[in-house]
């Protein structure tokens, strides 16, 4: 049977199963296993299932085994654990409180502090969903209680939560680096400037929103002294220290990304115990939640690895590359088409699912056109970041809706998200147009 046809049918089958709400790990693994069996069974022309059993099981088990024993993959549970421990030790929330004090007198200050807090949380945890969930519980009720517009109060946290995908460390960057065999340390550094530009863009949206509609964010009437600001800034030193260890250690060549994660976990536990903000029960609960989240990610990664091996077996990727080359698409048209595909998929699928499903086809195209894989990684993560707040299945929006309950209908949250989405698109165009924005830091190492 024709391998390309089997590969295309397999993609359609995976999308069909995902539409039926089948977990993506099982959908990828099942379709890849069946497709591999079919290819080997028909290899000699006639259907011979006895000849397909051994090579199929070999492909499935060897690829999943190799992935789970990957050194780079070990940093995922470390960074997930770091996020849980830092939250329970009150390290991440101090960033928000410091920003809250410093921005109190600025129009929309609480909303801006929420975005800054999300950026700081992202610089430690690496998870957008965790960022939106945690900061949503902290920031959104406060904004609603002081009279903020419900759209601004919810949309600012939902949008700010997406920064966890781009600001290092990022679980999505780790998975991208593993599947494309690029440096995860370089990817982390490449996300810094685009992440900061995105954060500044969100702050600008809030500033303009409140300037045009002062009633959206009541002015702060209390008194803030420089002593208050200094105290708040000093209290956030543990978060700054962890970020310096991650970024400074990697940039300076002191640590690999995995080593930086291990050092930060140890430092967070030590800080929490010394400050008496962390108990043994907190550590146990953090490790338990880490095991649950890591297992889910590992299952998806294993299923994706099997699917990637299957796609390589079908030969569908070279055929697509040949077709695109024959069409003589310009680099701009190619990147535009890729962006539209990711934005469309982002309306319905979760970020990890989109990435592991599309990378087997996208990477050969990118390499054919001579694009930098680190720069393309930043573009992909930014596209996935946009998908987190794009209707109808913006995961961060649903997370915030779950936090606020019936107080704010989900359509109101999406109404507020529209302004942040416009800035996200502008930042995406900037990243695609100016590769140096992503490559400046990693290539200066």
UniProtKB/TrEMBL annotation:
TM region(s), chain numbering: 68-87, 108-135, 155-179, 186-210, 241-274, 295-317, 329-349, 361-380, 386-405, 417-441
Record's bilayer topology term: Multi-pass membrane protein
UniProt superkingdom: Bacteria
A single GO cellular-component term on record: plasma membrane
Subcellular location, principal: membrane
Keywords: Cell inner membrane, Cell membrane, Membrane, Transmembrane, Transmembrane helix, Transport
Subcellular location: Cell inner membrane
GO molecular function (one): transmembrane transporter activity
Domain TRAP C4-dicarboxylate transport system permease DctM subunit, chain residue ranges per copy: 11-437
Subunit field text: The complex comprises the extracytoplasmic solute receptor protein and the two transmembrane proteins.
Function text: Part of the tripartite ATP-independent periplasmic (TRAP) transport system.
Family to which this protein belongs: Belongs to the TRAP transporter large permease family.
Name of the protein in its database record: TRAP transporter large permease protein
Organism: Limimaricola hongkongensis DSM 17492
Lineage: Bacteria, Pseudomonadati, Pseudomonadota, Alphaproteobacteria, Rhodobacterales
